[in-house]
Amino acid sequence: MPYNLHESLVAPAREKSGALRLLFGSVTIVLLYMTMVMLGGYAVVAVMGEAWLQAATISPGPTTPGQILTILGSFGLMIAAVGVVVILLHHRSPVTLVGGLRPAATQFLQVIRGLVPYIVLIATFNFLTEDLMPNLLLGQWLILLPLTLLFLLIQVSAEELVFRGYLQSQLAALGLHKSIWILLPSVLFGLLHYDPTVMGGAAPWIVIWTIGFGILAADLTARSGTLGPAIAFHFAVNFISIAFIGFNDYLGGLALYVHSFSVTNTTTLITYLPLDAIGILLAYLSVRLVLRR
Predict the structure, then answer these.
(1) 223 contacts 291 by C-beta, under 8 angstroms
(2) Strand order in 257-258's β-sheet?
């Protein structure tokens, strides 16, 4: 595989690398993030009230625009956590996690433009094959759209920074085989999406789906040498599932339309996943085509 460009992400990680340092850094990121989320919860209660926070955490998940924006915005704390660890423990700039702001931004915009046909195709396919239900009024959706896009960008950037920017580059800096630094972060990424309380019997399949997504994002990162393409890939996929066609009872508060079935409908959800996986593969191939230009 042509992974030579991955060196731009791995080289800054080598100076302060090491298995114990990486383990300590990973645990510290988790603890910092959890602590900040807890403190953020107190702030939310102080501003919105305890009833609002409890409503946002009722299973299967938050459903109003404010609740979804709060959840997405909380990922900014993850960005802060990984930034602190990279600076204090690895003695390097957080910018090195993305491969440089300018090249990453350039590739992000390039890939986003290339993914517009994919978004249109997936939306059209869903309209033709499923009886979608209106959710937000178009005017309300358009008013919220700038915030939706910004907070989606925060969410996907945080996950890519941790799993592809930090874990992948630090594992590669140890000289490990590419199968390890691609698979290990992807498996961890998948396991964090295991939610049998909401997804029921579909939860293991969601994990497998997410691991596959992580592998594709890792491949794009290694091929491009920045996080720009992986963030754009992640952003396009999440835009469709959160901002365009969501679930009425699970993270659907910002969606223009919602599926006609509940996220707790295990049988239908499992049937839907293979089609969704094909869509993800199409998005990945679209990014590959853009990167070849």
Answers:
(1) yes
(2) 133-134, 257-258, 245-246
